[in-house]
């Protein structure tokens, strides 16, 4: 199926005006692929059919939005990052024993990353000293994160990731396994507030010490990426960390000298001081 950039842009503008959901800032090739996928799933033969459905069926728009914003995540993805964070968080509380660490998982998808951090905090004995926000624009993904139950297919891979992170730990004690799924211990999220949030159109939720935003910005155009980076810089406390994904590392982070790589291997950036 062939769709022009102009057709996709017109549809995005119409959705933004009617429902306040902004896809005009999405990277065009990625957005086009996902729209074609939605049309194929719904057996639509033309963009006109999609226009009619979107503009006349408000309930379909949530389904459409959730399909557009499907995220990629996994438990203890990039285990070396979690080793880095374990050491960083340990040192943080060694230096600031009575402090609170504030974390934002921006674009948390189905929550595997949030549970991973919960395990790190539990094993360090500092979960009660951390306040975290986990947000995503995809309501289906947030529902999965709240339930904490996942298909069994990736379980062994996630156990392997955890074993690289902590060879002496036991991933099994953090979840209950059945034939076709496993459910995480929900108390791992006792420090977390889950919130539906759009990085482009909504206000950012206060200051944080660590912001996760892994392989989210790759879906936006350059102007929107730089806008998000600027807002992240504003929302981080002095010397705060921005943790990005592999594909995000190709974004021009040097813009305005906002961040410096603290560790290039695990893609951790540190906030530079505000430029006067």
Mean pLDDT reading: 88
Largest sheet: 7 strands, mixed
The Rg value, from CA coordinates, equals 20 Å
Name the helix and strand elements from N-terminus to C-terminus, one letter apiece: HHHHHEHEHEHEEEEHEEE
Helix content: 40-55%
Structural class: alpha/beta
Coarse morphology:
globular
Separation of the first and last Cα atoms: 51 Å
Description:
The protein is α/β, with parallel strands linked by helices and 276 residues long. It is 41% helix and 19% strand. It has helices at 5-19, 28-41, 47-56, 58-68, 79-95, 112-124, 139-147, 155-165, 222-235, and strands spanning 101-106, 130-136, 149-151, 175-177, 181-184, 192-196, 208-213, 236-244, 259-263, 268-271. The strands form two sheets. A seven-stranded mixed beta sheet has the order 6-2-1-7-8-10-9.
How would the blueprint of this fold be written?
Blueprint: H1 5-19, H2 28-41, H3 47-56, H4 58-68, H5 79-95, E1 101-106, H6 112-124, E2 130-136, H7 139-147, E3 149-151, H8 155-165, E4 175-177, E5 181-184, E6 192-196, E7 208-213, H9 222-235, E8 236-244, E9 259-263, E10 268-271
Parallel strand pairs: 1-2, 1-7, 2-6, 7-8
Antiparallel strand pairs: 3-5, 4-5, 8-10, 9-10
Helix pairs in contact: 1-3, 3-4, 5-6, 5-8
């Amino acid at each position: 199926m062939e769709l022009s950039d102009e057709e996709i842009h017109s549809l995005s503008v119409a959705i933004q005006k009617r429902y306040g959901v902004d896809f005009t800032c999405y990277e065009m090739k990625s957005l086009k692929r996902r729209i074609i996928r939605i049309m194929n799933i719904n057996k639509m033969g033309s963009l006109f059919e999609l226009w009619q459905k979107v503009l006349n069926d408000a309930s379909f728009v949530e389904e459409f939005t959730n399909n557009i914003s499907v995220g990629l995540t996994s438990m203890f993805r990039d285990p070396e990052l979690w080793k880095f964070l374990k050491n960083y968080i340990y040192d943080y509380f060694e230096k600031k024993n009575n402090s609170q660490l504030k974390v934002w998982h921006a674009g948390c998808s189905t929550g595997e990353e949030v549970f991973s951090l919960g395990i790190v905090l539990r094993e360090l004995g500092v979960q009660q000293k951390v306040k975290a926000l986990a947000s995503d624009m995809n309501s289906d993904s947030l529902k999965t994160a709240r339930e904490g139950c996942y298909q069994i297919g990736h379980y062994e891979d996630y156990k392997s990731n955890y074993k690289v992170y902590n060879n002496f730990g036991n991933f099994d004690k953090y979840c209950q396994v059945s034939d076709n799924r496993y459910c995480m211990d929900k108390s791992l999220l006792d420090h977390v507030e889950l919130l539906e949030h759009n990085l482009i159109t909504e206000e950012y939720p206060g200051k944080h010490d660590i912001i996760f935003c892994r392989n989210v910005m790759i879906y936006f155009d350059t102007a929107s990426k730089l806008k998000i980076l600027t807002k992240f810089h504003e929302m981080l406390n002095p010397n705060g960390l921005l943790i990005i994904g592999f594909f995000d590392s190709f974004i021009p982070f040097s813009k305005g000298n906002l961040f410096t790589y603290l560790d290039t291997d695990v893609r951790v950036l540190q906030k530079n001081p505000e430029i006067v």
